[in-house]
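Quick one, tokens below:
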């Protein structure tokens, strides 16, 4: 098996090392793991691609590359420039430092990388590690992902639905709970949740030279989102597995809108 890995935290991120180990275990001794990751952190870029300017790419080692672009750029570079002798069998994105549950999904470069892979017709999984009091002081903050990641990826490959609907292939977003590996309660297949009352905002600051800048501020992450959703599962100690497609259509609105507007 040939696996391409990427992330949005950058080529030197600890989570990428965790993902490499997961990918290597899944690929097996005869398999290959290729890395194409952003040269610098790209958190929050979503499914951005560098459409209006070129992307520089550098080889750092055997099957290891850094690109000055987004995770989606890295996926495109991996498929069409790096792995020229054959496309990957699987693309993994992560392991993100922090959760990509709930509304975070829409901003996530980690998820954006997996989405681009799916749009290319390739199996893809985004993996993220929720942070909280239960794991931030562990020697390995990614312990839940480190221990449970490979088995979960293998099970998804064997048992997941990788078909397409209207041309949009399924991909998966996996979030590991903020707990030591031994305290993880199991797995939960979930919908994407929404944290009520939580939104990104901006905070103005002054630089020493007097110029005014805005810092983007996040919000509370441990907000309940209800049964059957990813955030809730993570808070309750479960690994969430959310099947996704890049189709943003609000299908439940089509019939009603047709009736009043057509």
């Amino acid at each position: 098996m040939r696996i391409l890995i990427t992330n949005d935290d950058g080529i030197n991120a600890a989570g990428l090392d965790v993902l490499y180990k997961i990918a290597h275990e899944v690929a097996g001794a005869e398999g290959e793991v290729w890395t194409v990751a952003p040269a610098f952190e790209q958190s929050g870029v979503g499914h951005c691609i560098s459409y209006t300017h070129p992307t520089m790419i550098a080889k750092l080692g055997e099957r290891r590359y850094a690109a000055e672009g987004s995770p989606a750029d890295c996926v495109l570079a991996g498929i069409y420039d790096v792995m020229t002798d054959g496309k990957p069998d699987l693309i993994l994105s992560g392991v993100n430092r922090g959760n990509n549950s709930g509304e975070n999904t829409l901003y996530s470069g980690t998820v954006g990388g997996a989405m681009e892979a799916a749009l290319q017709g390739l199996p893809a999984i985004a993996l993220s590690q929720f942070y909280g009091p239960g794991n931030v002081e562990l020697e390995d903050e990614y312990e839940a992902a480190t221990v449970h990641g490979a088995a979960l990826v293998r099970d998804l490959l064997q048992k997941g639905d990788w078909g397409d609907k209207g041309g949009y292939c399924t991909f998966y977003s996996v979030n590991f709970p903020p707990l030591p590996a031994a305290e993880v309660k199991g797995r939960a297949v979930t919908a994407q949740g929404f944290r009520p009352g939580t939104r990104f905002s901006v905070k103005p600051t002054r630089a020493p030279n007097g110029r005014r800048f805005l810092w983007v501020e996040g919000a509370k992450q441990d907000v309940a989102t209800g049964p059957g959703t990813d955030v809730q599962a993570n808070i309750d100690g479960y690994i969430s597995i959310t099947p996704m497609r890049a189709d943003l259509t609000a299908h439940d609105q089509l019939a009603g809108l047709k009736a009043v507007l057509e």
